[in-house]
Amino acid sequence: MAATELDQIVNLCKRRGFVYPSAEIYGGFRSSYDYGPLGSLMLRNVREAWVRTMVQQRDDVVLIDAAILAPPQVFEASGHLANFSDPLVDCTKCKQRFREDHLTDPNLCPGCGATGSFTEARAFNLMFKTFAGPVEGSGAEVYMRPETAQGMFVNFLNVLQTSRKKPPFGIAQVGKSFRNEITPGNFIFRTREFEQMELEFFVPPAESAQWYEYWCNARLQWYIDLGIPADMLMLRPHDDDELSHYSSGTSDIEFKYPWGWGELEGVAQRTNYDLNQHAQHSGQKLDYFDQATNERYVPFVIEPAAGVNRAMAAFLLAAYDEDIINDEPRTVLRLHPRLAPFKVAVLPLSKKDTLTPLAKQIFSTLSERYMVDYDETQAIGKRYRRQDEIGTPFCITVDFDSLEDGAVTIRERDTTEQVRVPIADLSIEMFRRLGF
Ligand code: ATP
């Protein structure tokens, strides 16, 4: 696999409609991105792959979709108002601002090279504050959630009572979170507005360690199953001084980004901190009564917390490849079929009217089940390359023989191998090849 530079992915994403700089016609809005026709499909595929594994294929996890705006009480209880901050230093020479914990040398300014030019570190809260209603001022303040997790904790009782689940069980959520990051960057790796996929898994306290280990392994395996080579991933337990205010143990699933190893997902043991805090602040009992043992307890929580956008970046980086086909270089995204924006492209060999009805009919049949691209312009070789570059696993070519023999050619992205298949067998053949 070619070593993937970030620039190659950024360029491909712009060129092919995965990701655009936000508000570009106004000069762009720094470190903010819009997802184009292909990027939005891929984001949806990442979310769906997560929901499929974490909710659909389990009988012990339910999904919720909580509000993004929340009153200050939620974040007072969670500790975010007091603790969710980064230490900031300013360079008195070049006036740039840095996160102290990101500096390789705490005395050396990476902006201008000055030494000993930093101010004392100040805590900078990362939450976005806004106002609900027409009056700005105290009493109207609300916050945009910096993580989806609190939605699960404040709904713990609702879900417990309506879903008939009992620990060990989980509440999952996919949705946007907002952090006023001081140093956003590295493309979609760190932005101020992003999407998370989080699970709060509630367990009897004595089972906490065993479920933590289980989720660390299960989450690592999820990325491998979706095509990231195992040697581009690692599980890194946090040192004590890295732990969040709520955590008794955290491991990061790290990915080998072009700039080095970095976090892809965090798996945290949140203990019973959040439920206790919300119980105390709300005056509600947030616990579970186990009728079998006659015991009442506050469940412990294991939280695998992933980022949709960051996962998309990792999947793209791992899938990017360049090879030589028939003496010609090509760019290919070797994306897992579940993640590829299109599963199939239908390509009539010529734009002539004679092929269009049959090609459209194939499109219409396959698009009942899959996201299918349809492209009839340019030479067929060029069209194959375009599909390779956006990761489409299969192309179906409709040619003039198809009108006679009722068959089409299936071309496979990775091997470029081509086979002739009866049109009548296409649906079953695609199912067999894609695996879904
Ligand atoms: P980091 O150390 O990179 O700031 P974090 O430890 O603060 O991340 P968590 O609070 O554990 O991140 O959030 C869980 C996941 O949400 C991260 O692993 C990441 O995938 C995603 N995430 C967090 N912050 C951002 C961001 N600013 N932009 C994009 N994704 C993010």
Topology:
Elements: H1 6-16, E1 19-21, E2 33-35, H2 37-56, E3 61-64, E4 69-70, H3 72-78, H4 80-83, E5 85-90, E6 97-99, E7 122-125, E8 128-131, E9 141-144, H5 149-154, H6 156-163, E10 169-178, E11 193-203, H7 208-225, E12 233-237, E13 249-257, E14 260-271, H8 273-282, E15 288-290, E16 295-297, E17 300-307, H9 308-319, E18 320-325, E19 328-333, E20 344-348, H10 356-366, E21 372-374, H11 380-389, E22 394-398, H12 400-405, E23 407-412, E24 418-422, H13 426-434
Helix pairs in contact: 2-9, 3-8
The protein binds adenosine-5'-triphosphate (ATP).
Adenosine-5'-triphosphate binds next to β11, β14, β17 and α9.
Which structural traits does this protein have?
436 residues, alpha+beta, BirA Bifunctional Protein, domain 2, Rossmann fold, 2 domains, 24 strands, globular, binds adenosine-5'-triphosphate
Tell me the strand order in the biggest sheet.
Answer: 3-10-11-17-14-13-12
Second-tier CATH architecture of the largest domain: 2-Layer Sandwich
CATH fold assignment of the largest domain: BirA Bifunctional Protein, domain 2
Cα(first) to Cα(last) distance is: 27 Å
The parts where pLDDT drops under 50 for at least 5 residues are none
Number of domains: 2
Average pLDDT, rounded to a whole number, is 95
- What's the CATH H-level superfamily name of the largest domain? Bira Bifunctional Protein, Domain 2
Strands, count? 24
**Top-tier CATH class of the largest domain:** Alpha Beta
How would you name the oligomeric state of the polypeptide chains in this document?
single chain
- Structural class, judged by helices and strands? alpha+beta
Strand percentage: 25-35%
The level of helicity is 25-40%
Tell me which ligands are bound. Answer: adenosine-5'-triphosphate
**Helical region count?**
13
